[in-house]
Amino acid sequence: MSITTSKTRTQRKAAATRQTIIATAKHLIVEGGLNSLTLEAVAERADIAVQTIYNRVGGRPALLIAVAELALEEHNKYMQAALAVEAPAREKIRLIANSYSRFAFERPNEFHLLLDPQGEPEALLRISELIKEQNAKIAVIIRAGIADGNLRADLDPDEMALAAWAMMNGILSLAFRDDQTHYYAKQVPSLIETAISMLIDGLFIEQKNG
Description:
mainly alpha; Arc Repressor Mutant, subunit A; KstR2_TetR_C
Protein backbone atom coordinates (compact mmCIF):
# COMPACT_ATOMS: atom_id res chain seq x y z
CA MET A 1 0.00 0.00 0.00
CA SER A 2 2.74 2.41 0.94
CA ILE A 3 4.65 1.61 -2.27
CA THR A 4 1.56 2.34 -4.36
CA THR A 5 0.97 5.56 -2.48
CA SER A 6 4.62 6.52 -2.91
CA LYS A 7 4.49 5.89 -6.66
CA THR A 8 1.31 7.89 -7.00
CA ARG A 9 2.85 10.73 -5.07
CA THR A 10 5.95 10.60 -7.27
CA GLN A 11 3.86 10.60 -10.41
CA ARG A 12 1.84 13.57 -9.18
CA LYS A 13 5.02 15.48 -8.39
CA ALA A 14 6.48 14.70 -11.81
CA ALA A 15 3.27 15.86 -13.53
CA ALA A 16 3.21 19.05 -11.48
CA THR A 17 6.83 19.75 -12.36
CA ARG A 18 6.07 19.23 -16.04
CA GLN A 19 3.17 21.68 -15.87
CA THR A 20 5.36 24.24 -14.11
CA ILE A 21 8.02 23.92 -16.81
CA ILE A 22 5.51 24.36 -19.64
CA ALA A 23 3.80 27.28 -17.90
CA THR A 24 7.18 28.94 -17.38
CA ALA A 25 8.10 28.44 -21.04
CA LYS A 26 4.79 29.98 -22.05
CA HIS A 27 5.32 33.01 -19.80
CA LEU A 28 8.79 33.56 -21.26
CA ILE A 29 7.42 33.51 -24.81
CA VAL A 30 4.49 35.77 -23.94
CA GLU A 31 6.78 38.26 -22.23
CA GLY A 32 9.75 38.27 -24.58
CA GLY A 33 8.99 36.34 -27.74
CA LEU A 34 10.45 33.11 -29.04
CA ASN A 35 14.07 34.23 -28.68
CA SER A 36 13.61 34.48 -24.92
CA LEU A 37 12.91 30.75 -24.62
CA THR A 38 16.00 28.83 -23.59
CA LEU A 39 16.30 25.89 -21.26
CA GLU A 40 18.54 27.98 -19.02
CA ALA A 41 15.94 30.73 -18.77
CA VAL A 42 13.21 28.23 -17.90
CA ALA A 43 15.43 26.56 -15.32
CA GLU A 44 16.26 29.88 -13.67
CA ARG A 45 12.66 31.14 -13.67
CA ALA A 46 11.23 27.84 -12.38
CA ASP A 47 14.15 27.28 -9.98
CA ILE A 48 14.89 23.79 -11.27
CA ALA A 49 17.81 22.05 -12.97
CA VAL A 50 18.13 22.03 -16.76
CA GLN A 51 18.29 18.24 -16.62
CA THR A 52 14.87 18.22 -14.97
CA ILE A 53 13.47 19.98 -18.04
CA TYR A 54 14.91 17.30 -20.27
CA ASN A 55 13.54 14.59 -17.99
CA ARG A 56 10.01 16.00 -17.70
CA VAL A 57 9.44 17.65 -21.10
CA GLY A 58 12.47 17.43 -23.39
CA GLY A 59 14.62 19.95 -25.24
CA ARG A 60 13.66 23.29 -26.74
CA PRO A 61 11.58 21.79 -29.60
CA ALA A 62 9.50 19.87 -27.06
CA LEU A 63 8.94 23.06 -25.07
CA LEU A 64 7.84 24.91 -28.20
CA ILE A 65 5.42 22.11 -29.08
CA ALA A 66 3.96 22.11 -25.56
CA VAL A 67 3.44 25.88 -25.62
CA ALA A 68 2.00 25.69 -29.15
CA GLU A 69 -0.55 23.14 -27.92
CA LEU A 70 -1.55 25.57 -25.16
CA ALA A 71 -1.75 28.40 -27.70
CA LEU A 72 -4.08 26.36 -29.88
CA GLU A 73 -6.24 25.59 -26.86
CA GLU A 74 -6.54 29.34 -26.34
CA HIS A 75 -7.28 29.88 -30.02
CA ASN A 76 -10.00 27.24 -29.79
CA LYS A 77 -11.70 29.38 -27.16
CA TYR A 78 -11.76 32.32 -29.60
CA MET A 79 -13.11 30.08 -32.34
CA GLN A 80 -15.73 28.41 -30.14
CA ALA A 81 -17.01 31.81 -29.06
CA ALA A 82 -17.53 32.69 -32.74
CA LEU A 83 -19.11 29.34 -33.56
CA ALA A 84 -21.53 29.63 -30.66
CA VAL A 85 -23.12 32.79 -32.07
CA GLU A 86 -26.44 32.23 -33.80
CA ALA A 87 -25.96 34.01 -37.11
CA PRO A 88 -26.34 33.51 -40.88
CA ALA A 89 -23.52 31.61 -42.59
CA ARG A 90 -21.93 34.78 -44.01
CA GLU A 91 -21.75 36.41 -40.61
CA LYS A 92 -20.51 33.19 -39.00
CA ILE A 93 -17.51 33.02 -41.34
CA ARG A 94 -16.81 36.70 -40.73
CA LEU A 95 -16.88 36.13 -36.96
CA ILE A 96 -14.49 33.17 -37.26
CA ALA A 97 -12.02 35.21 -39.35
CA ASN A 98 -12.24 38.12 -36.91
CA SER A 99 -11.64 35.75 -33.99
CA TYR A 100 -8.38 34.65 -35.63
CA SER A 101 -7.20 38.24 -36.03
CA ARG A 102 -8.17 39.01 -32.42
CA PHE A 103 -6.05 36.07 -31.28
CA ALA A 104 -3.09 37.40 -33.28
CA PHE A 105 -3.34 40.92 -31.82
CA GLU A 106 -4.13 39.89 -28.26
CA ARG A 107 -1.54 37.07 -28.15
CA PRO A 108 1.10 38.16 -30.70
CA ASN A 109 3.99 36.01 -29.48
CA GLU A 110 1.85 32.88 -29.36
CA PHE A 111 0.63 33.74 -32.85
CA HIS A 112 4.26 34.00 -33.98
CA LEU A 113 4.98 30.60 -32.49
CA LEU A 114 2.17 29.00 -34.49
CA LEU A 115 3.29 30.86 -37.61
CA ASP A 116 6.99 30.01 -37.39
CA PRO A 117 8.78 28.16 -34.55
CA GLN A 118 12.10 29.57 -35.79
CA GLY A 119 13.86 26.76 -37.55
CA GLU A 120 13.07 23.97 -35.11
CA PRO A 121 12.17 21.12 -37.54
CA GLU A 122 10.60 18.89 -34.89
CA ALA A 123 8.43 21.71 -33.57
CA LEU A 124 7.55 22.87 -37.08
CA LEU A 125 6.32 19.40 -38.02
CA ARG A 126 4.13 19.00 -34.95
CA ILE A 127 2.75 22.55 -35.15
CA SER A 128 1.94 21.96 -38.83
CA GLU A 129 -0.08 18.90 -37.78
CA LEU A 130 -1.93 20.97 -35.18
CA ILE A 131 -2.69 23.68 -37.76
CA LYS A 132 -4.08 21.04 -40.12
CA GLU A 133 -6.42 19.92 -37.35
CA GLN A 134 -7.58 23.52 -36.90
CA ASN A 135 -8.10 24.05 -40.62
CA ALA A 136 -10.08 20.81 -40.80
CA LYS A 137 -12.67 22.39 -38.50
CA ILE A 138 -13.11 25.26 -40.95
CA ALA A 139 -13.37 22.80 -43.82
CA VAL A 140 -16.25 21.11 -41.99
CA ILE A 141 -18.13 24.43 -41.91
CA ILE A 142 -17.48 24.95 -45.61
CA ARG A 143 -18.73 21.45 -46.42
CA ALA A 144 -21.90 22.12 -44.47
CA GLY A 145 -22.42 25.32 -46.43
CA ILE A 146 -21.98 23.45 -49.71
CA ALA A 147 -24.45 20.79 -48.55
CA ASP A 148 -27.16 23.36 -47.75
CA GLY A 149 -26.63 25.14 -51.06
CA ASN A 150 -25.15 28.41 -49.75
CA LEU A 151 -21.54 27.84 -50.77
CA ARG A 152 -20.02 27.07 -54.13
CA ALA A 153 -19.79 23.34 -54.77
CA ASP A 154 -16.87 23.72 -57.22
CA LEU A 155 -14.44 24.67 -54.42
CA ASP A 156 -12.47 22.13 -52.40
CA PRO A 157 -13.26 22.72 -48.69
CA ASP A 158 -9.79 21.71 -47.49
CA GLU A 159 -8.05 23.98 -49.99
CA MET A 160 -10.39 26.85 -49.17
CA ALA A 161 -9.69 26.46 -45.45
CA LEU A 162 -5.94 26.43 -46.11
CA ALA A 163 -6.16 29.41 -48.47
CA ALA A 164 -8.16 31.42 -45.92
CA TRP A 165 -5.64 30.59 -43.18
CA ALA A 166 -2.70 31.59 -45.40
CA MET A 167 -4.42 34.80 -46.49
CA MET A 168 -5.13 35.87 -42.92
CA ASN A 169 -1.57 35.07 -41.84
CA GLY A 170 -0.12 37.09 -44.69
CA ILE A 171 -2.12 40.17 -43.79
CA LEU A 172 -1.63 39.84 -40.05
CA SER A 173 2.13 39.48 -40.47
CA LEU A 174 2.21 43.05 -41.84
CA ALA A 175 1.32 44.31 -38.37
CA PHE A 176 4.46 42.79 -36.86
CA ARG A 177 7.13 43.49 -39.47
CA ASP A 178 10.09 45.77 -38.73
CA ASP A 179 11.23 46.39 -42.32
CA GLN A 180 10.07 48.94 -44.89
CA THR A 181 6.58 47.42 -45.08
CA HIS A 182 5.91 48.27 -41.45
CA TYR A 183 3.95 51.36 -42.48
CA TYR A 184 1.20 48.99 -43.62
CA ALA A 185 0.57 48.10 -39.98
CA LYS A 186 -1.98 50.85 -39.49
CA GLN A 187 -3.89 49.54 -42.51
CA VAL A 188 -4.14 45.98 -41.20
CA PRO A 189 -7.66 46.29 -39.70
CA SER A 190 -9.11 47.60 -42.97
CA LEU A 191 -7.06 45.07 -44.96
CA ILE A 192 -8.51 42.28 -42.84
CA GLU A 193 -12.04 43.50 -43.51
CA THR A 194 -11.29 43.72 -47.24
CA ALA A 195 -9.82 40.22 -47.28
CA ILE A 196 -12.76 38.75 -45.35
CA SER A 197 -15.22 40.38 -47.76
CA MET A 198 -13.27 38.95 -50.71
CA LEU A 199 -13.26 35.53 -49.05
CA ILE A 200 -16.99 35.58 -48.40
CA ASP A 201 -17.79 36.85 -51.89
CA GLY A 202 -15.67 34.06 -53.33
CA LEU A 203 -17.28 31.36 -51.20
CA PHE A 204 -20.96 32.15 -51.39
CA ILE A 205 -23.34 31.61 -54.26
CA GLU A 206 -24.81 34.91 -55.34
CA GLN A 207 -28.40 35.16 -54.18
CA LYS A 208 -30.64 36.58 -56.90
CA ASN A 209 -33.85 38.32 -56.10
CA GLY A 210 -36.97 37.22 -57.87
